[in-house]
Write the structure tokens for this entry.
Amino acid sequence: MSGMKWREEAFVADTAIQVIDDTRVINAVEEAYGRFYVGTHQYIWIFLNVNAGGARVELRWFTSQTSTVVIGINKVDTRPPGNASGPFACMGSWVDVVVLTDVTPRTVTLRFWNVRSPTQEQTPDSFSLLLSLDGPLVGAGVTRTDNAIRTRWGWGYWSARFETCPSYRIKILAIDYLGGIQLLDYTSQVDVSPGRLFMLPPVPVRLLSFNNDAAGRNLYASVSMHPGPL
């Protein structure tokens, strides 16, 4: 694993077997990398990066090399300049690895390991933070957008509030590789505790923070991931 950058890639165990280490220009919106044998390994680890727009990896699971019946699918999305990195539990002995992009051409980096267990993950700030806001001023009636562009999944924690603000609302959203948006959670001035556990999906997340007061207010927020096994 020489040459790997800790700032953007996972710490993968010494027992891992690297199956794919590939950077290519993709000229089709769906690019098949092949069917791979994972055998008795319990997990695989995926790293995905795209130069612009968005990309998705689909893991299509099969019981044999020749089977045409998909027994399960995992998906993970990323949007630049961040990356997606993390483990999935194996659902079969064979897996088709397919990359989809929003448009073409896109330059995609894909890495894939067989691993015996999900390993620790470390984000660039070393504290498992995906997003942190320490009091930026948001004007009266203004909506602020902040992206946690590194894609990590599993248990997470988020906390968000405006200081001494009588009226606000803050949403945490999931953004897929095509830019589609789904609501994950919501908080407002009526919440006694602005922080809670939630499940991070395998797509980038975004905070949308609306200050409904007549004066500017300071925003405090963080989104973090659990660094251990899923």
